[in-house]
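Hey, I'm writing a tutorial for new members on how sequence and structure tokens pair up, and I'd like a real worked example in the thread rather than a made-up one. If someone can provide the structure for the chain below, I'll link this post from the tutorial.
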Amino acid sequence: MKEERLDFVSSLFSGKEQHQNLNRVHEFFPKSTLSASLNPMAFLAGEPLSLPTEFISEEKIVNVDEYLRRTNTVALLILHDGKIKYENYWLTGGRDVHWFSFSMAKSYISALIGIAINQNYIKNIGEEITEYVSQLKGSAYDGVSIKDVLQMSSGASWNEDYSDPNSDINRSSAILADGGSLDEFTATLKKDLEPGSFNRYNSTDTQALGMLLREATGVSVSEYMQKMLWDPIGAEKEGYWILDSENMEIAYAGFMATAHDYAKLGELYRQNGHFNNKQIIPSDWIKSSTKPDAPHLMPGDNPLSDYPMGYGYQWWVPDHSGDFSAIGVYNQFIYVSPKNKHVIVKLSANRSYGSSGEEKGMSELEGISFIKTVIDKSVKNDKK
């Protein structure tokens, strides 16, 4: 099993095919299992939608079929007002297939932080994270507010370049393959920038939030999520959290679920935290999570950010439309458009992802353009 883990981690961002791996990560990594909900909720069928034939990205016309093939799409699920308008699977995808979240997991951690605050496990996000996680004292996170960590603005020194084998993110992945503690790794980071001054995408910020959840609630991330989120949203299938060798969840990237159950998180946020006939997350947390509130977090050409999309509490904000998205490497999306009442889940295994440091090799912005074109067509069809 360790050999398979090593093979998988070493193959990431190398250009190798991954669609035969990302549906079975839970088979060769240690994991915790979240049980399907006692009251599962299934989406109903809506008016069928055909996909557009093309869309525009970076001023170029892109053929939709070619885009879906090129990004090794395995699942595409389109909901309008909570009903299925389009659903299709390719390669190793399927209605009941679990798929590795990568960084979409970050948005689940954010949801759980909001719930923990509502339950008074955490007083407020203005508190220093080290008030709860003593292990991080003396690290980059010492004295940093929970809010700055949520907004990827901790100031920790970090390199998330997937194409660089010596980057921090790849050193973190190596720990998972060889065995080791993500808690210990997180505690080694050093301060580089003033917290709250620059939006630097740092996966270990999310790992620190996972540690916060565990210390504040007194239970594992998996146990807390099972009770407070997975069961209430009516998950139809099991979920899996991938663990390090110390049984800590890989909070920044290690969740696995089906496309339908991923869509439930999107629907929960589209409806301001109310879903399946209950208020699961406070509505004010949803609004704060998905709206950038400082200059360094704003979308667009921003000298105070390392990426052209805006950022909230572990949610990407592509523009000023009110849309937001959970995004994972290899082109995973849970995209939410509250104004247009749409949720779109795209699961992929884009083999070219991260093989260069350029965004065009990652195609996140291209994915956003595709999704927006799909929504535009859906809205126009509804007006006919």
